Amino acid sequence: MKFLPIIGRVLFVVPMLVFGFGHLGDASAMSGMVPSFLPAPTLFVYLTGLLLIVAGGAIAVGYKTKQAALFLAVFLASTTFMVWAPMLSSGDQTAFGMFMKDLGLTGAALFIAWAGAGPMSMDNKGESDD
After folding, report:
1. pLDDT, tens digit, for every residue of 68-95?
2. What is the span of the domain harbouring residue 96?
3. Does 128 have pLDDT greater than 90?
4. Model's pTM, two decimal places?
5. Is 125 among the domain residues?
6. How far is it, in rounded angstroms, from Cα 126 to Cα 129?
7. Would you list the DSSP string of the chain?
8. Domain count within the chain
9. 127 lies in some domain
10. Residue 22 is assigned to a structural domain of this protein
């Protein structure tokens, strides 16, 4: 049971890292999904990609886990409601799937922000893992 928190943290951040590197690899294609009220959409995609990687890496190793998870919760909730929710009325099944995925990931990020990294993390270095 003592390995569950680290396994959970790593499984949670795998999509964040994949999405983050995806942002960096194809920012011009993703810039079309940035809400129109935000300036410099391609730059915004690059920045969010870097932030996904940094926050995901921090959660994976358990460094400043609560802060990183709270950032991801805000980012994911924003994406859920500003990018995917407007597409739901058209009946777009892909948008519905992405909406539900990001909604669930937001909930997981909020739980991590509340619970912290758990054992085997930099946040809890030196504490007993028993």
Report:
1. 999 999 999 999 999 888 888 888 899 8
2. 4-115
3. no
4. 0.88
5. no
6. 9
7. -TTHHHHHHHHHHHHHHHHHHHHHHSHHHHGGGS-TTSS-HHHHHHHHHHHHHHHHHHHHHTSSHHHHHHHHHHHHHHHIIIIIHHHHTTT-HHHHHHHHHHHHHHHHHHHHHHH---SSSSTTTTS---
8. 1
9. no
10. yes
